[in-house]
Amino acid sequence: MDLETDVLVVGGGLGGVAAALAALRLGRRVVLTEESPWLGGQLTSQAVPPDENAWVETFGAPASYRRLRTEIRELYRRHYPLTESALAAAALNPGDGRVSPLCHEPKVALAAIHAMLAPYLANRRLTVLTGTRPRLVQVDGDAVAAVRLEATDGRAAEDVAVRAPYVLDATELGDVVEKSGAESVIGAESRDQTGELHALPGPPQPLDQQAFTWCFALDYREGEDWTIDRPAGYGFWRDHAPDYWPGPLLSWTDVRPDSLAVRTHPLFTDAATPTGGHGIDRWTFRRILSARTFTPGFLASDVTLVNWPQNDYVLGPLAGVGPAERQRHLDAARQLSRSLLYWMQTEAPRHDGGTGYPGLRPRGDLLRDGTPDDAGLALRPYVRESRRIVGEVTVVEEHIGVEARRAAGLPPGSELFADSVGIGCYRIDLHPSTGAGVPRSYVDIACHPFQVPLGALLPVRMDNLIAAAKNIATTHVTNGGYRLHPVEWTIGEAAGALAAHCLATGLPPRAVRAKPDALAQFQRLLTGVLGAELAWPERIRTSTV
């Protein structure tokens, strides 16, 4: 079966959904594909509550991203038994988690995404193909001619070829970039290559990539026993103590990401926490449902999302390795998360002096349809680092890093890009690395609120391929700031809008960027039609996060 469309978006994470919506709103036909059963990526199938900037309620993300957040809140207001105070809160936070002003169930985010896409499915300008991944990318010179898809969900393979004038790669690992032969980078560049203050000395390390994490959800039923079967790899993970870590990985002791100071960070700080407390503990940090948000009796316990240093997988990367090795690492990451749960249920020191929390109940029913995983695991692993294009512009630490800009004698504030297509804000946050010769701990450094340059979305050679997610031309270092939810959405929206704009004007992407009048016209489209924001107010741009 062959399909033809105006814009093909491969990968249905946040970047892919935003790209599809932008192209659809600008009148184009779109085919959107996704490897997993769910659209939404890190917000849904990977189950990560949004990490967002401090101004997100009013500024710092596209209008469409704020609409997504509003849709999520409205679903709770319309269908859940909220307390009067929660119902009246403009910034409703169902989980009352500390990581974000909007912590919520992945399934509710999925419902909001479906609602936003529904009109375009109804008028048949959007085709969504879940459970598919790119098998082959056909290239004609410096352009992608077609992407051939294969099924991933157990169906008989249907060799579907999709042809489109513009192809956007919004996959988690840069699959189209890799299979097209577009110039790309994986892992950590060397300091000699990028000049970055926090880049690795010596040669580049392609397999030095941020840890990925298989998240899971839990509630807590005191007096009950929900202990899972002892995982096959439990003995290994219980005793595993990385050289860069203060002790065993399965422990309440870890490090502060910014200073690497050793700390003890328990699950609970007091017995009331599982039913709506506010202790500074692991339980409340990524809590996705708080019992105190809802009317009494609706929830017997909070529900929290486990995305912690203890289940960051550091024994091997996902990008740049063969299918068998990738699968081995995926299986091992599942075993790590299952082992963390089993350790918490059976051996972890308790806040009251005992050992083990057998009442920790897996809530995989909130993270997947059909039969939930018995350990509460998400559908997909949380991927922090992708294959990245070699772009017309590469964002380096000197563009956004506070310390790097100071060392270079540059004024406070992030680099101003004339070709800005969006803004974002997050610390340069690199989790422990996988697959390098010597695994290393966090690199977590201050940066300024930044812009997204159009040149970082454009491969240096391929004419109709546009990066639309974490695969833009950042470095290993700056990827740590550009990888989170609202920034990925911003990138995707700009990519989808660019494809639609190029079809409307007949200009190729590089010409849009190269011609000042054409660039200004495209930027007006972004701000005037789509509600994008291209620059921070000066007082925020020069601030430090």
Description:
The protein is α+β, with helices and mostly antiparallel strands and 545 residues long. The protein folds into 2 domains: 325 residues, FAD/NAD(P)-binding domain; 172 residues, no CATH class. 28% of the residues lie in helices and 17% in strands. It contains 16 helices and 25 strands. A 5-stranded parallel sheet has the order 4-3-2-8-25. Strands 1-7-6-5 form a 4-stranded mixed sheet. The radius of gyration is 22 Å and the shape is globular. InterPro entries: FAD/NAD-bd_sf, NadB.
**What would you call the structural class?**
alpha+beta
CATH superfamily caption of the largest domain: FAD/NAD(P)-binding domain
| Neighbour order of strands in the largest sheet | 4-3-2-8-25
Q: Ranges with pLDDT <50 over ≥5 residues? A: none
The 3D shape can be described as globular
- Return Rg in Å: 22 Å
Proportion of beta-strand residues: 15-25%
Number of helices: 16
Number of domains: 2
Distance between the termini: 49 Å
- The name of the CATH topology of the largest domain is FAD/NAD(P)-binding domain
Percent helix: 25-40%
CATH architecture heading of the largest domain? 3-Layer(bba) Sandwich
The major sheet is characterized as: 5 strands, parallel
Number of strands: 25
CATH top level of the largest domain is Alpha Beta
